Amino acid sequence: HRLRAQDTVVAGLSAHDGRFLRSADAGTTWRDLGSPGLFDFALDPSDPEIVIGTQQSGPVHSSDGGQTFNAIPDAPLLAFLAWTGTTVYSIATDNTVQASTDAGVTWEQMGQLESQPQALGADGDRVVALAGSTIWDSTDGGRTFAPRITGLDAH
User: Fold this and answer.
1) Is residue 154 over pLDDT 80?
2) Which positions ≥6 away from 45 have C-beta within 8 Å?
3) What pLDDT, in 10s, does the model give residues 54-113?
4) Is 30 helix (H, G, I), strand (E, B) or coil?
5) Which CB contacts under 8 angstroms, 24+ apart, belong to 79-82?
6) Which pTM was predicted?
7) Would you give the DSSP letter of residue 139?
8) Among 106, 102, 99, which Cα is nearest to 142's?
9) What's the DSSP call for residue 85?
10) I need a labelling partner for 122 at 20 to 30 A (CA). Which of 24, 79, 85, 134 fits?
11) Burial level of 80, CB count in 10 A (0-12/13-18/19+)?
12) With contact defined as beta carbons under 8 Å apart, do 54 and 38 qualify?
């Protein structure tokens, strides 16, 4: 499952059936927006009507809260997303860290992880990824990473 919140908007992606659900009242009521084929998604922190998602064919963009999605042309094939401030961070399928400061229209390669990640988070220039049994930490916008916690598979 994926769950994202911004102000009173909460959006979720079901791992069971791929349904994209959205609440405008902090989760009191939900609207089923169908199955857009998303793997991950992120909400614009300044406007939760703007959604970027990742699909098997490439990233997609929605300006209506996820009711419709359109392909983002010429973008790398992305997997995980994290949106902080005006920057969207992503991990591409080749393990490169990508960043966009224009809501996903263009992407810049920042750095690279050693292995395929399972999760991604960001806060300002800090980018954190779980890859294998290690949490990798970047304080320079994903350009370089250092292991923060290792041996997670032993827990």
Assistant:
1) no
2) 6, 83, 84, 85
3) 999 999 999 999 999 999 999 999 999 999 999 999 999 999 999 999 999 999 999 999
4) coil
5) 79/39, 79/40, 79/54, 79/117, 80/40, 80/54, 80/117, 80/119, 80/120, 80/129, 81/40, 81/41, 81/42, 81/52, 81/53, 81/54, 81/120, 82/42, 82/120, 82/121, 82/122, 82/127
6) 0.91
7) S
8) 99
9) T
10) 24
11) buried
12) yes
CA distance 2 to 13: 5
Q: Which two tokens stand for residue 134?
A: 């290690």
- Give the dihedral sign, CA 25/67/81/97: negative
**In 3D, which of 136, 137, 130, 134 has the Cα closest to residue 152?**
134
**Residue 18 is which amino acid?**
G
* Angle at the Cα of 77 from the Cα atoms of 39 and 146, rounded to 5 degrees: 85
Q: Hey, what are 86's tokens?
A: 């005006």
- Cα 145 to Cα 98, 100, 116, 117, 153: the distances in Å are 14, 19, 14, 13, 20
Q: Which residues contact 54 (CB under 8 A, 6 or more apart)?
A: 38, 39, 40, 41, 60, 78, 79, 80, 81, 90
